[in-house]
Write a structure and sequence with these properties.
By secondary structure, the chain is mainly α. The chain has two domains: 73 residues; 37 residues, no CATH class. Helices cover 72% and strands 0% of the residues. It is built from four helices and no strands. Helix 3 packs antiparallel against helix 4. The mean pLDDT is 75.
Length: 124
């Protein structure tokens, strides 16, 4: 009679372990889905802010009247100053040297002009 109960006990242990593992995986999947939904909401909020900042002033006024789609409220009581414009990136020294070499090869610069421009670029 004991021999008969052991397979049942083993099956119950295996089934219980599988149930707990499945429950854990389901909870983990639900947590992941909630995290991704929260990230998607943050991204959409940032995109709507960027669209507002990139819109021309007359469209910004219209957007204030309409409000963002998820809030539907008027303009805020304060307004942030726009970020300072990024300075135009100067071409690297390598790019400038290659441009000078191209002009020299095409005959637009003489040897003396090329040497002077190269010395000025390299600071020598």
């Amino acid at each position: 009679m004991l021999r008969r109960r052991r397979p049942l006990l083993r099956a119950a242990a295996v089934g219980g372990g599988a149930y707990i593992a499945g429950k854990h995986m389901a909870n983990k999947a639900n947590d992941q889905a909630a995290y991704e939904a929260q990230q998607d909401q943050r991204i959409s909020d940032l995109e709507s802010q960027q669209q507002y900042q990139q819109a021309p002033p007359d469209q910004q006024y219209q957007q204030y009247q309409q409000g963002p789609p998820q809030y539907q409220q008027g303009p805020p009581q304060y307004q942030q100053a726009p970020p300072p414009a990024a300075p135009a990136a100067a071409p690297s020294v390598y790019d400038q040297l290659s441009q000078l070499a191209t002009l020299h090869d095409q005959g637009a610069l003489t040897d003396d002009e090329f040497s002077a421009a190269k010395a000025k670029l390299l600071g020598t």
